[in-house]
Amino acid sequence: MPTSTAVTMCGIIGYIGSMNASRIVLEGLKHLEYRGYDSVGFAGVLNGSLIVKKDVGKVDDVHAKLNFLEHNLNLAIGHTRWATHGRVTKTNAHPHIDCRKDIAIVHNGIIENYEELKNELVSKGHVFRSRTDSEVVAHLIEEEANNAASFEEACFKAFSRLEGAYAILAIDRKDYKIVAIKKGSPLVIGLADHGSFAASDIPAFINYTKKVVYLYDYDMVVLKPDPVFYNIENGNLVKVERPIQSVEWDAEKARKGEFEHFMLKEIMEQVDTVQRAADQDKKILEKIANEIKRARGIFLVGCGSSYHACLTASYVFSKVAREHVNVVLASEFPNYEHFLTSKTLIIAVSQSGETYDVLEAIRAGKKRGSKIISVVNVMGSSLARESDEFLLMHAGPEICVLSTKTYTSQIALLNLLAYTLAGRYEEGRRRLKYLWNVIYYLTSANTRNKIRKLAEKLADKKHIFCIGRGLQYPTAMEAALKIKEASYIHAEAFAGGELKHGTIALIEEGTPCIVFVSEENGKEILSNATEVKSRGGYIIGISPTNHEVFDFWIKVPECGTENPIVQIIPVQILAYQLAVLRGCDPDKPRNLAKSVTVK
Ligand code: AGP
């Protein structure tokens, strides 16, 4: 399997068939908006002419302005952009077209050799309109079409010259087909009786079909009523067969339901998703536990919230299974690659399974013969396919850019693995089953209303601190991340024991400090809370019992090694409510994308 490199987080969708392609693409773009929403565009073929509509802004705004539904087409492609090359302008929005306005393309990824190709094409007379790398694809196909017997042949020749990472959909006004190529960026095919789809992610077309084909790098698909699958192997276009799989998600899950935002919906789903994460094949867990026992050097690797889940797991593996695991931020992994051997085990944790830094880390491990096990939420993801073994979180689609249910699913799954490693699988299973009632209480309207009162007190704060010890320290880190991402309030996490080493200088009158308390280290962390309080801090206790040091108390029952699952939930709710109070969009925070697939 060829490796892939950095890619951007745009969303692409295409449909060809007997239904209204304009409507399907518009709906698909809405579902893909979490992947990027600087600008959006649409292209289709009407009576042999190319229709292209695009502008800066979110899908609803641009559609209201340009009316993507003006024509009832049977072939269309669409794109939501998260800018990397070129500023956020209408000209830089996709789709991009060739000189003769015959060809339109949408692209997710980075064409690393675009300057060289652009110079060559300009010298042949091509005129470029944008500052993007992607536009070079349209002109390259146009150029190759001069000596090609078909549109797909021109595409094949053009794609063969690209370096970097890309998922591309290309259409020609004279030809009734969509040509798709995948290399490094996610692309999945949907098959229905009335037509076929190509998209960056399954939610884009899940309302129409659950039959999907996951593509491999260098797969090229000619989408027409009967799609044809190829792979570009050593410069040749080879026909291939790809299995058709059925996804477990139904349309309802991929929609908000009665919730205003996906973030709240997904927080509420944790009553069930923690249970689903625990629903693993015991034999596979035992097999992986044996891999851990055999390994000489274990690395837990992840980014963002997934990294916090890895850090949490390192404490649980230590306490429950007496197993030492190294935890490394995926982006920092290159500093440890010299330790990797064929005896090393890398456990990669990634909800999307497309995070660039995580993929690079496991590829470095594979080069050195290390064993790769991953914990993912998306079965067809690059990480799942490139791992020796993978465990599915079964959390269902997480549409909100911020991870909530997938974070607690990761912890639940890794806890169960630690208990299995310790020969205590049944106990691990029982401990997770017990959480159903706790999470039900924590996500109840009563608890949410109480937290809302806290949010109203904190909504105008400039800084919020979070402290914890032991298992509560990574929880404090995740709490700070949630608050920052959702509400843009600066939040910072400290290990309780670190406060006196400098950071307590930051505490001023009224500085809010969220304190995570467990039976295991309650005395010490409460002492830290008292130090903060004596300097004017406002203490919020996430704790099984109340204490006089608390100015605000949120009751969270003691759950031992499962505290990280339950204690984060009130802060997820707090972060959500702060976002809403501050007029932020919790589902699509500024500057963020769901799957960070660039360096
Ligand atoms: C979490 O709220 C963030 N959106 C982000 O830190 C995320 O956890 C990180 O990018 C890792 O994503 P992954 O799990 O898909 O690899």
Q: What summary fits the major beta sheet?
A: 8 strands, antiparallel
Give the class from helix and strand content and strand pairing.
alpha/beta
Please provide the count of β strands. Answer: 25
Hetero groups in this structure are: 2-deoxy-2-amino glucitol-6-phosphate
Which shape, going by the Cα principal axes? Answer: globular
Features of the shown structure:
599 residues; Rossmann fold; 7-stranded antiparallel sheet; disordered N terminus; 8-stranded antiparallel sheet; globular; binds 2-deoxy-2-amino glucitol-6-phosphate; Glutamine Phosphoribosylpyrophosphate, subunit 1, domain 1; 17 helices; single chain; alpha/beta
In short:
The chain has 599 residues and is α/β, with parallel strands linked by helices. 35% of the residues lie in helices and 24% in strands. The chain has three domains: 244 residues, 4-Layer Sandwich (Glutamine Phosphoribosylpyrophosphate, subunit 1, domain 1), CATH 3.60.20.10; 188 residues, Rossmann fold (3-Layer(aba) Sandwich), CATH 3.40.50.10490; 141 residues, Rossmann fold, CATH 3.40.50.
Draw up the topology in text.
Layout: E1 11-17, H1 21-32, E2 39-46, E3 49-56, H2 59-66, E4 75-81, E5 96-97, E6 103-111, H3 114-123, H4 135-145, H5 151-160, E7 164-172, E8 175-183, E9 188-192, E10 195-199, E11 211-214, E12 219-223, E13 228-233, E14 236-239, E15 245-246, H6 262-268, H7 270-278, H8 282-294, E16 298-302, H9 304-321, E17 326-329, E18 345-350, H10 356-367, E19 371-376, H11 382-386, E20 389-392, H12 405-421, H13 425-442, H14 445-458, E21 463-468, H15 472-487, E22 490-495, E23 512-516, H16 522-533, E24 538-543, E25 552-555, H17 563-581
Parallel strand pairs: 16-17, 16-18, 18-19, 19-20, 21-22, 21-23, 23-24, 24-25
Antiparallel strand pairs: 1-4, 1-10, 2-3, 2-4, 5-6, 6-7, 7-8, 8-12, 9-10, 9-11, 11-15, 12-13, 13-14
The chain binds 2-deoxy-2-amino glucitol-6-phosphate.
2-deoxy-2-amino glucitol-6-phosphate binds at residues 303-306, 350-352, 355, 358, 401-403, 485, 595-596.
